[in-house]
Design a protein that fits this description.
Layout lengths: L1 H12 L4 E2 L2 H8 L12 E3 L4 H14 L3 E4 L16 E4 L15 E5 L4 H8 L4 E2 L12 H7 L6 H4 L2 H4 E7 L5 E4 L12 H5 L8 E8 L1 E2 L3 E9 L2 H11 L5 E8 H11 L11 E9 L4 H10 L6 E5 L2 H12 L1 H7 L4 E6 L2 H18 L4 E7 L4 E7 L5 H14 L24 H14 L12
Parallel strand pairs: 2-4, 3-4
Antiparallel strand pairs: 1-2, 5-9, 6-10, 7-8, 7-9, 11-13, 11-14, 12-13, 12-16, 15-17, 16-17
The structure holds flavin-adenine dinucleotide (FAD), D-malate (MLT) and zinc ion.
Length: 451
């Protein structure tokens, strides 16, 4: 049966794109963090929607599970195969069509990386509304499937808000194609929004129609030192007065130390400080003065600040923030929890975290950072892999007790599936299960992810 299936898949995608050599498939079998892995029966790399449909039909007929993978930068274990599954990689479906300048939209293959789309649209004066550090590897299909957030959510919303249409293959091989991108289209259930954020449990996205935002050429970035979390929230309140505000990111002294050890960057200020907020404004004219005025208006909250408007200076400041993920991973495999807490409770929740984590994993190291405007905290716990369940349970229950969400932007994947009832009611979960069973009655697409 297995050999028959691999032979059938080879007939669909070609000999070179149905891979079984263990040394070749290895990189598809473990995730970016090294925490999650599985063994695929075969890696299949279709080149079109039609080939994806044929692959899914063949796997359904053989009763074999299919796991979907884009850039494999996901952080919740959703992108690796379950043992024995066919791993379907979207990387070959990556064409970027001509930009529709009238509609300010573009249609792209799901396997196109975010960086490739940015490079295609920027020369025409457009940009993508979502951006984050994995841009060179993450695919727009993966971003839509996880409803990725990132650094510009406060201005443009999450990935779901950028996806105005898509094409997807359902588990039985049927194709849903809604690529018109009509801004107004009230004709029943919103299948585009449903597939966005479904983490590959309802269908394989093969194409996306993305809304584009104006490319704003004038940018100013400030790194502001503050005394702690409450002051960081206070600062964000002050800078929100600037209409061109695009990002407000938070990190702490211990995270900065890890980043500096990993990158050899110099200290940003003469003195170390407990916490740092990076803010970016973008406009058609230099927003530097507006940003500075807002920072000044924050008064005593500001312990120190440095501003950059030139490309090199901005990039240097952003590196302190964006290099957190790789610097933490260089120090070990972390238990990564990505949560959201109402801003009013954000500082209290952060204050409670060290004791909560220490009680579950006494020898661990806690590194926090995140997208402070959305109350989105990245909770990274090093040296805690042996206590991963206990520490996850403690942190996620704490977050729920503050009225927060167990997943702000990375999704539920396999890592947080057991804690979904902390964020979703029994009725909501039953509704999600009904949808899953209706679309994928055999349960063959991304089994174990989300539900
Ligand atoms: P994968 O990791 O391959 O897959 C993710 C999930 O989507 C899996 O469940 C997979 O089955 C499913 N999937 C993938 N492609 C498809 C498809 N075409 N159709 C159906 N299902 C599919 N995330 C954020 O939200 N914000 C951040 O700021 C952020 N920063 C990051 C920084 C770094 C350095 C890294 C490594 C990761 C970061 N992430 C961030 C997480 C990750 O990059 C995102 O979740 C991204 O959207 C995943 O895209 P991908 O193509 O790598 O998807
Ligand atoms: C980020 O904002 O850098 C990420 O979401 C990645 C992470 O949590 O490590
Ligand atoms: Zn993030």
């Amino acid at each position: 049966m297995t050999d028959d299936l691999v032979a059938a898949l080879r007939a669909i995608v070609g000999e070179a794109h149905a891979l079984t050599d263990p040394s070749v498939v290895a990189s598809y079998e473990s995730d970016w963090t090294g925490r999650f892995r599985g063994t695929a029966r075969c890696v299949v790399r279709p080149a079109s929607t039609e080939e994806v449909a044929a692959v899914l039909s063949a796997c359904l007929a053989a009763g074999v599970a299919v796991c979907v993978q884009g850039g494999n930068t996901g952080l919740v274990g959703g992108s690796v195969p379950v043992d024995g599954a066919v791993l379907l990689s979207l990387l070959r479906i990556a064409p970027i069509e001509a930009v529709d300048e009238v509609a300010a939209q573009v249609t792209v293959g799901a396997g196109a990386t975010l960086a490739a789309v940015q490079q295609a649209v920027r020369p025409l004066g457009f940009d993508v509304g979502v951006d984050f550090a994995a841009r060179e590897s993450c695919t727009v299909g993966g971003m839509a499937s996880t409803n990725a957030g990132g650094e510009r959510v406060l201005r443009y919303g999450t990935m779901r808000a950028q996806v105005v249409g898509l094409e997807a293959v359902l588990p039985d091989g049927a194709v849903v194609s809604r690529l018109a991108g009509l801004p107004k289209d009230n004709t029943g259930y919103d299948v585009v929004s449903l597939l966005a954020g479904a983490e590959g449990t309802l269908g394989v996205i093969t194409k996306l129609r993305l809304r584009l935002v104006p490319l704003l050429p004038a940018r100013a970035v400030a790194l502001v030192a503050v005394a702690g979390t409450a002051e960081a929230v206070e600062l964000v309140r002050a800078v929100r007065a600037v209409p061109s505000l695009e990002a407000a990111e938070l990190f702490y002294a211990d995270g900065l130390e890890l980043v500096r050890a990993h990158t050899n960057l110099p200290a940003p200020f003469a003195e170390p400080h407990p916490a740092y907020v990076l803010v970016e404004c973008a406009d058609r004219e230099d927003p530097g003065d507006d940003l500075l005025s807002a920072i000044e208006a924050a008064g005593d909250v500001v312990l120190d600040a440095t501003v950059a408007s030139d490309t090199r200076g901005r990039h240097a400041l952003w590196t302190y923030r964006e290099a957190h993920t790789e610097s933490i991973s260089a120090a070990g495999i972390p238990v990564k929890l990505d949560v959201a807490v109402p801003l009013a409770a954000f500082a209290d929740c952060v204050a409670a975290l060290p004791d909560t984590v220490a009680a579950a994993a006494p020898a661990s190291r806690l590194i926090l950072f995140g997208h402070v405007n959305e109350g989105n905290l990245h909770v990274n716990i090093l040296d805690a892999l042996d206590q991963d369940e206990a520490v996850s349970d403690a942190v996620l229950k704490l977050v729920a007790s503050f009225g927060g969400s167990i997943s702000a932007e990375h999704g539920v994947g396999r890592a947080k599936r057991d804690w979904l009832p902390l964020s979703r009611s029994a009725t909501e979960i039953a509704m999600m299960r009904s949808i899953k069973e209706a679309v994928d009655p055999a349960g063959l697409l991304n089994p174990g992810v989300l539900l």
